[in-house]
Amino acid sequence: MIKINNKKLAKFLGFKAIRLLILLIVIAAISFIMIQLSPIDPVKAYLGQRIVSQQQLSIIGEYWGTNLSLGERVLGWLQTLASGSMGFSLIYRVPVTEVIVQKFTASLTLMVVSWLISGVVGFGLGIIAGAKEGSLADKAIKTYCYILQSTPTFWIGLVILMVFSVYLGWFPIGLSVPIGQLSDTVTFWQWLYRLILPAVTLSIVGIASLTMYTRDKLISVKKSDYFLFAQARGESFWGIIKNHGIRNVLLPAITIQFLSFNELFGGTILVEQVFAYPGIGQATVAAGLRSDVPLLLGIVIISTIFVFVGNLLADMIYKYVDPRLRGEDDE
Amino acid sequence: MTKLLEVNNLSISFTQYVQGLNRHDSKVISDLSIDVNENEIVAILGSSGSGKSLLAHSLLGILPYNSNVSGEIKYKGDILDQDLKEKLRGNEICLIPQSVNFLDPLMKVSEQAIGECKDEKEYNEKKLRQREIFTKYGLDESVDNLYPFELSGGMARKVLLSTALLDDPKLLIADEPTPGLDAKSVKETIEDIKNLKEHGKGVLLITHEIDVALKTADKIAVFYSGHVIEINKVGNFKNVDNLLHPYTKALITSLPKNGFNLTEGVQPLGDVSGCPYYQNCPNRMDKCENNIPNLVNHNGVFIRCFDFEEANDES
């Protein structure tokens, strides 16, 4: 169905890779400089409460290069980064890469599940509201979206936690593993059971914007000439919504959903905090609060890549699925 | 013989809110009467934006919700109400739309011509028919898989025409089929429409191009400010003396080949209390200012002018 021109794809991905590289260098440098200019002292953060002599302090400082100029430090950081190392996490006492891989995998399930839920539900609600514009269903969906849009994520998380975990007692209050159990021994169902509330919270937030967007898009399709013509040809209402409405709304909606990766990441940080779910979000907060500079910088880079990939996928979908763009730059 | 389509005293107005909550009814089509028979092409000739397309939309039951329609439309002698419109549209009454914008930009043209199908069997039958019609109009198989944006203007016209013919309709409504086309495509379109007539179909051609109307139609209804002011046979348009309404005369004498005589004045927008042509009429009378003349039959020509209403009364 979709013909992929390998040469064109390679060229496209090549360009994107170069862009990502430039973006990463810039982001890495800027975030490093910002940390350097902040009042965080890495030596103090490393030592914590331990008492050391002035001499020992200066030895550690020299080892870490605190006597170097800012430019030298930035270059040093970029060089280390290029060699594939992100340094050593101060909190977890393991390489940053290891922490990120572990935490990110835990969060990824959460993010993927809620991304899928919000995509399907958000799109469905948007289609219903748009098709039946002005009806009771539309008004209900619209009100629901406005409320969600104007509510902070962490607050929704707290409300859900209070209702379902505290008052109703249906779900655990937090943590991805039951207390007193090793993470290796957790069964699939235990894990899933603990995933539900955070995933629902995270998806609820994503639904509103997608629903409003889909609704709006469908309403404009309904006003189009081709919609009118399909009616004039005697096609049934839901038939037209299916054949022409969804066809024309789906692609931009999917794109919007991919572009929402940054919101997803931001939402994860809040939701994981509320539900005490040990993922990348919690690690971010911990790294920030406890001045774990290497981990914080590592997370910045990973989240940059994550959001970039979302945008890349959105771009690719448009380029290879929309017939109007597919053949555009064919020679 | 029953007429294929009979429109009597059709008026279409829109309810709009002007300045806060004041409702205002703006009349777009007033007291329109017209007939279309089998084997006949009737052109509705009017300037752009005069509401001609709304006639087509009202025949198909796709007017916007804030419109008010009065009058009577009959199809083969039966009152054409919304239920019947919904039943007939797409199979007995078909629209040939204005432009490629009426095609879904993300759907292959062959699929669009086929349209909605109940099951596989219906789809296969229609697929064969679609291929047959496309071939008839010189669209080869490679066109089937094209998207609307890939069509040239002429091809798009043929695809639009094909969509209307798939169900073998009795009455076709062609809404501005020629704007923006080159001379060759216009000529082809005229031929295609005439061809439909040969196959026993009735065609209602809505256009603002005098030339197209003259070359295609059997009967021309002249539309002025929402009113039909004259319905005359196409042969009479060759000679200004056979035309009755002063506006029609002015229209024809303004053509380059007929002397290029331009008449000053514009069509009134919105409501007029009297004859819509009162402002510009060379032989207006006092009563024209506040009374709208009726469309009367004068020796087979329908005319909306007091000059002829009286003449009829006397005879």
Provide a descriptive summary of the structure in words.
The complex is a heterodimer of chains A (331) and B (315). With 331 residues, chain A is mainly α. Helices cover 76% and strands 0% of the residues of chain A. Chain A contains 14 helices and no strands. In chain A, helix 5 (96-131) crosses helix 13 (293-321), helix 8 packs across helix 10 (237-259) and helix 8 runs antiparallel to helix 11. The longest helix of chain A has 36 residues, at 96-131. The model of chain A has no long low-confidence stretch (mean pLDDT 82). Chain B has one domain (3-102, 171-314): P-loop containing nucleotide triphosphate hydrolases (Rossmann fold, 3-Layer(aba) Sandwich). Chain B is α/β, with parallel strands linked by helices and 315 residues long. Chain B is globular. In chain B, the strands form 2 sheets. An 8-stranded mixed β-sheet of chain B has the order 6-7-8-3-9-10-12-11, with helices on both faces. The longest helix of chain B is centred in the middle third of the chain and has 17 residues, at 120-136. Classes of the chains: A mainly alpha (331), B alpha/beta (315). Chains A and B meet through helix 9 and helix 10 of A and helix 2 of B.
